[in-house]
Write a structure and sequence with these properties.
By secondary structure, the protein is mostly helical. 98% of the residues lie in helices and 0% in strands. The protein has helices at residues 2-52, 54-137.
Length: 138
């Protein structure tokens, strides 16, 4: 039972570790998405400025090309974060499954121990009754 208790503690620690890693991955993914939104807002702002001033329009092409590269990099980062998040969700699900298996095993072991104790107690009571019956016959 002691070994099973240790395994349950380890499984619980692994599930907690996966939960923390998933929360961090979600934070990083949200941050990447926010950076994409900020970049899009900056591009829209620059487009508005370039539309109003002819001198700004001539430099907007270089700006837009550089921001397109930034956008591709941020999209790749967001996709990597999403993939890591999915992998961590799967790892967390597996950790919970393993934890539930061990907890169920511990419950079954405890039930078996109670059953064995009840059988031993019943056997002792039966033995006492047999001895008493034998004495009464004499």
């Amino acid at each position: 039972m002691k070994a099973l208790s240790t395994l349950i503690k380890l499984a619980r620690a692994e599930a907690d570790r996966c939960q923390r890693a998933l929360a961090e991955a979600q934070r990083l993914h949200a941050r990447a998405l926010q950076r994409i939104a900020d970049l899009d807002a900056g591009i829209a702002s620059e487009q508005a400025v370039a539309a109003k001033a002819a001198s700004a329009w001539s430099t907007y092409g270089g700006y837009a090309a550089a921001r397109a590269d930034d956008r591709r990099a941020l999209n790749a980062e967001a996709a990597a974060c999403a993939a890591q998040e999915a992998a961590l969700r799967e790892a967390l699900a597996q950790a919970h499954v393993e934890l539930k298996k061990l907890e169920k095993l511990a419950e079954l072991e405890a039930a078996r121990a109670l059953e064995a104790e009840a059988r031993a107690e019943q056997a002792a009571l039966d033995e006492a009754a047999t001895i008493r019956a034998a004495r009464e016959r004499l």
